[in-house]
Design brief:
Elements: E1 11-29, E2 35-50, H1 54-57, E3 77-86, E4 91-97, E5 106-115, H2 118-127, E6 129-134, H3 142-150, E7 155-163
Parallel strand pairs: 2-6, 3-7
Antiparallel strand pairs: 1-2, 3-4, 4-5, 6-7
């Protein structure tokens, strides 16, 4: 007899974008008189926040045991987690965890598909990756996410974007 997987808590999903620093300075000469320096790359940010406080519901808080995310750094890359997007309607559909065995792999679907605006979709196609972060409860605004990042309250990873 197998033990059924622990139920997933309810998550709010917020999509935004963030500029992450590039590992090196990129220089592009546009004309004889101007030079463009690229110090960061825009990437799609997927914020997963629990609907209620995990401590109050007994939810396993280690589900996303991602490292703390310090402002102005690139989150660590995580090969097992993937962000899944549906190309036909340009929506974020959920997360996929690719474990060593199919039995251990898991998919987390979002309740309602979240559509990406044109600019964010183009950003996603150019980078083919996304930043997944956790650490907040409820439905945080972009300003609350920025504040939480500055205060070191978020955990995050850089993951591959899968297009279905």
């Amino acid at each position: 007899m197998t033990t059924p997987p622990a139920p997933h808590p309810a998550y709010n999903v917020g999509l935004s974008h963030i500029t992450v620093p590039t590992p090196q300075v990129q220089v592009t000469r546009q004309t004889e008189r101007s030079t463009e320096f690229t110090l960061g790359t825009d990437v799609v940010l997927i914020a997963l926040s629990t609907v209620t406080d995990p401590a109050e519901t007994g939810t396993d808080q280690s589900r996303f045991a991602w490292p703390p995310w310090q402002a102005h750094t690139i989150p660590e890359s995580h090969q097992e987690w993937k962000a899944v997007f549906l190309t036909r309607d340009r929506t974020f559909r959920g997360l996929y965890y690719e474990a060593r065995t199919p039995e251990e792999s898991q998919t987390i679907h979002v309740g309602t598909a979240v559509a990406l605006p044109d600019a964010m979709w183009k950003m996603l196609q150019n980078s083919a990756c996304a930043v997944l972060c956790t650490g907040l409860t409820g439905d945080p605004s972009a300003a609350e996410l920025t504040t939480a990042l500055g205060q070191g309250m978020l955990q995050a990873v850089l993951v591959e974007a899968l297009f279905a």
